[in-house]
Protein 1
Amino acid sequence: MPRILLTTRCRDSGLYDYLRENAPRNFRWRFGMPRTISFGLRFLRQNLPDLNILEYPTRAEFSAQLKRGWDAVGFSFYLEETNDILAMAAEARQAGIRELWAGNYGALTPSIQSHFDHVFTGYSEDALGQKLGTRVDEIQHPPLITRFRLPGGWSFPLGVLFSSRGCSFRCTFCQTTAFAPKPKEISLASLDRVLRFYVQHGIHFVLLLDENFGNLPSHAEAVIELLARHRVRWLVQSRVDLLLRNFNDWQRCGMEGALFGIESFHQDILKQMHKNERAEAAFELAERLNRAGLYAQGYYIIGLPPETPGSISEDLRTLASLKLDVTQITIVTPHPQTEMWQELDSGYGIFEKDWSKFDTKHLVWNHPHCAPGVLESLLEQGFHSCYGKDWLVRTSRKFLSTRRAQNDISSVLMGPVRSRWASSARLPYLPVQVPSGDQQVRRAVA
């Protein structure tokens, strides 16, 4: 069996914190969610136990690992991490590693693929299993626990769940159209197993991070029944139309909040993005979530070609009026192998060569109406508007009222203790399952 090491970027420049990146600079009273584990590498290691993974090491730790004589070293990364990964790959070459592999969304970039001997596209358990001479019969979901920090820093553990992976929608800005264009279910047996682990370790809140939960209706219904059986509360990422269609049923079954894409308040822009949703639907969803006291997190994009500084400022004021608990605002950023990359590159030109600037917080193409620096200033303006003077009181009151209504203050008090499972060193994998008789037959035939 070849000796394989899979790694992420090094952590020397600090861990990525999604909620820090989507708040005003130096804003203390915000939520936090530092990225300490790699969901993708955990899935690979759970399903292919002979792999070795290294999650967000220091550069010294990475260099020390290279001396252990690996047959191949693979890198899992996002587009904005490309510079760091290329430097790590160069070091691995110098250390005499025979094969370098690349995976995750960052590996979709054609211009950097020549730095690697093999590029994995999409979720790669099957492809990597073939490389190792084994077969993955059914994807097993690993325990994934993240440390969610409340305003002020109090820790609260969330169990992460993917009931499916991939997306069939064709939004022009999204790389999933190239990465995993067809959603695939994770089996109920696998989900039941990981939910049992969460509950046994005091994790009673789950974050469903499907691209669009509910897009596979019968499977989603079965997953919700499973969540209810384990008596966990859940937050869910989905489309606005799916959330509105299922709002009452999902709330009755334990939904505590939603994460959803708004993208734009203008129907013509949504149409250009192939978003195919009613612009006014986002207002309805935000109002229903707030009225019900449920967590509301929205995603918004600024800087499409027709937009001007004036129109963006007006839209950001509208965005603030939704009174969301968390607001992700991004500058429109073309990503390789998307329609938007082709449209912006051919129509206006992509001038930026520094991959670290492709983090959705910098302008990287020639905007027809916004000079360099303007969109970055508007981005900060938007965050200050969305996290205004009433934000902390409003959001804290919603959170505590929900916990009191659920008679569940103890989950908050025990949060820091239970959050210890979010440590990459502490979080285990589930035991390898012995294949059933028919699986053994199929494997023998294969």
Protein 2
Amino acid sequence: MKLRFFELAGLAVLLCLPGASQASSEGKSGGKISISLSTGGDRDSARDIVSVARSVVLAEGDRAKDVVVIGGSAQIHGSVEGDVVVVAGRSLVDGSVEGDAVAIGSLVLSSRAVVGGDAVAVGGSLSIAPGARVKGERTEVGIGLLRSVPLLGDSAAAEALRRWITEGLLWMRPFPHQVWWAWAAAAILLAFNVLLALVFPSGVTRCAAVLEERPLSALLTGVLAGLLAGPLSVFLTFTVVGILAIPFVILLLLCAVVFGKVVAAGWTGQGAGRRLGLPWAENLPAAVAVGTGLIFAVYLIPVLGLAAWVLTGAFGTGAVLLAAFDALRKETGAGSSAPAAALSAASLPTEAASPASSVGSLPQGRQVLGGAGSPPIAGGGLPRAGFWPRCGAVCIDVFVVGFVGAVTPLPAFSLPLWLAYQVGFWTWKSTTIGGIVFDLKGLRLDGRPMDFGVALVRHLASYLSAMALFLGFLWAGWDPEGRTWHDKLAGTVVVRVPKGELLLQ
């Protein structure tokens, strides 16, 4: 198949073609875009058609150069001079296509169809009616091969699986709302999660406390567990004797993943309930049920659903493994008893649901940020900065950096300029221009202002917070100390100071 497919897909994503605006401005009816291009036989007047999340109909007698549709269907009754590419949708060719007809989904060629290139269906079925002409290759990749499986063939199970792949997997979401059995599976999983919470309440609480205390450690542990599972199995295979341990390793990891999903759901549900002041927030099974429902709702969203599935699995699995390591250290007597005491004293996000607004209102055991023996934060108990003031400060900083780049020979907005701005201001004033506007000041945990090293570490760590779909930034919204991931890594906290004080320093 030609590389033209990838070129067209890139054009669709960028939405830079004139046809993108043309297609979206044509007549719309019933969620479809009806393309009517009266070319009158003039070959040069044919245009590219690019559509995202809407279906395209090329009427009989109309012409187009290339047709690219993402997240919708395409019906080609006219003629296309180039290729037809449909991603995550259904394509019907009832006219002529001089190039390739490619569908990441199902492709149907009627008896009148003429395809000058290849006919390709990836992840869906390729249906070619008698009389259709395809001059190139006919390729069906993925679930169309399920027909060759003896136990599936053209059965309802094969069709249900094909439907989930085309409506869910290709859209990068675990739960497509169009597939009925996905809802049944969601109901079963919800009941299973609640059952585990009822049977192992102390385990869920303990693991959720670890997730609350050490989110970054939990994330990294979960990611490493997933990455090292394969190499570890290969290593055990080479040792020959270790082959017997492989099933147990896989089973333990699977149990950690399943239980981790329950932990993530419980932490999410109880945190949301407490922030809203709802009475069921203290009921663990109810919190797990609500948290599971919230997570499953995100699973319905394309792209974000898959990201949520991966992140909840990584966070939950890491929390379970860390809790198991802590319990093992406590049982063997290794290390200090302080971490174990702190872990046993913690409860399922008691603090996460009710973020303290000042040092004096922090829960017991959190009066000192640095742990036992650390000096309290300077400033006489200044209140922690909330999420929205910090968000507003960042918006102002972005505007300032963009303006500087626009009026100087420097790039309009570049990472080196952003680094110099943030690290320079945090080192000089312990804040930025946006922080001055919102009266925000960054301090180290011992109460001292940031130095260059701390400011640099904090800035570089902020990219980790951004890489996890900005979850590290959002963490300040429910963290009891109002700290982001990069605050935790750099050992800093952001506080509110009296208005105008920063300007006098």
